[in-house]
Amino acid sequence: MSTSALTHHVRVLAAPGDRHHEILTPAALDFVGHLAAAFGERRRSLLKERRRQALRLASGSPLEFPLVTSAVRTDPAWRVAPPAPGLADRRVEITGPPERRMTVNALNSGAQVWLADFEDATSPTWGNIVGGQLNLLDAIERRIDFTTPEGKEYRLKGREQLATIVVRPRGWHLDEEHLEFDGRPVTAALVDFGLYFFHCAQRQIDAGHGPYFYLPKLENRYEARLWNDVFVLAQDLLGIPRGTVRATVLIETITAAFEMEEILHELREHSAGLNAGRWDYLFSLIKTFGHRTDFLLPDRAQVTMTAPFMRAYTELLVRTCHRRGAHAIGGIAAQVPGNDPAANEAALAKVRLDKEREAEDGFDGSWVAHPGLIPVCREVFDDVLGERPHQLDRTRDDVEVTPADLLSVRRISGPPTAEGVRTNLAVALRYFAAWLRGQGAVALYGLMEDAATAEIARVQIWQWLRHRVIDRETVLRLLDDEVAALGAEYPWAPVDDIRALFERTALTGELPLFFTPDAYTRHLVKRTEAGA
């Protein structure tokens, strides 16, 4: 794409940063502008449809497998594209933000895939967004080696030893306030996708892989169709053959679980499979049906993947993927090894059981949040896969899942414990503190927490208050305690802002859909404007 095509002007509203000019080139911004011009209005229409669907479900409309797409589900002939180079064997995938140190460590970790996460694991400060793009470009160009002031060296291994990069852009619901097109903020998903695709797609092809993506928080087949059209236009604009892009969709909303086959079908030329995004899935379930008493969830720690409705969801995902030739990737192991040998042993035992269930159910791989979990995850999948790169041949024809199975939450429904309430408050407040400071992945109480787990923490408090299984006075008293503890633990934290953010997003009558847009516009954008 030549600079002579500069007709879709995107304005940068932030001050220049170190090396930002290498990413925010006129041609790259014009490319993003093309995407914004082509898809901005359609994206806004789809977000309105999300709200209409939420109102329909809240008013009692049943959630069913769509009748209008039954022909897609019953047609045995269609398949997704075959696995792309670097994506045939995905038995261990590590996730993390595209920070410089994380980039080197993740690529060197021994995992088959690194999910470079601009979404839940990244606090979207302008520096993090552009810096993450720089780090990916530097990694592909092999110029990311560095030494810390303390003398610790970070060096990439040989290319054949590195994990395959798969980028997760932000969801459709978010804007990028630092870029403006036609008087509006540019859709954040198009910024993250567009900048990476413009700078790195051909470089990745030349290196033997390709431009690969994870797509978050899709709610239906129409949102998958939008992504597919984005891929087609992006490939056409840069002269890259159609079908080069590969995308794995996270099935992490309850409505998407009812359209798994349709989502694969919409993306089939570009599909690399589906992932069981367990934490966002629970978050979505509460957002969608939290007003109903039969969807009252107990403490997060008690909602395991063996719960009947979660088993239905994961088994349907494996069956759907494998009958269409797509990879099925399991959920994340979020444990963070520490200095206590007994605690580490217990954590690894829990991880092993979780991964054994996934591998035996037919998953082709799984996620970990920490390099220390890679050996146990690999060992489990090695035992099942052996030398095979995947187990797509296990079509799981034995699985039959009904809408009632996916919605059978009442079988584990129950009130929270006092410890569960306090833990949710502690996690949400501490995560908000880190997020507002620019850190999107945080180790708390032995787990790697990200925006998805903070979302569960706040919406559970909202749900428990709504159904009066806890009283507001108790929550406010515990909130006082946790805010005081937060201030003592993190003297730098803006405790008044953090408390206000929690109150706006968890203690209101109407549940805000996400905490991130509120926190982003009130705090991160203002911080950039102030030069912080």
Automatic annotation (TrEMBL):
Residues 11-62 form the Malate synthase N-terminal domain. It is an enzyme of class 2 (transferase). Keywords: Acyltransferase, Glyoxylate bypass, Transferase, Tricarboxylic acid cycle. InterPro entries: Malate_synth_C_sf, Malate_synth_sf, Malate_synthA, Malate_synthase_CS, Malate_synthase_TIM, MS_C, MS_N, MS_N_TIM-barrel_dom. Residues 164-408 form the Malate synthase TIM barrel domain. Its EC number is 2.3.3.9. SUPFAM superfamilies: Malate synthase G (SSF51645). It catalyses: glyoxylate + acetyl-CoA + H2O = (S)-malate + CoA + H(+). Residues 417-521 form the Malate synthase C-terminal domain. It comes from the Bacteria. Pathway: Carbohydrate metabolism; glyoxylate cycle; (S)-malate from isocitrate: step 2/2. GO terms for molecular function: malate synthase activity. Belongs to the malate synthase family. NCBIfam families: malate_syn_A (TIGR01344). This is Malate synthase. The gene is aceB.
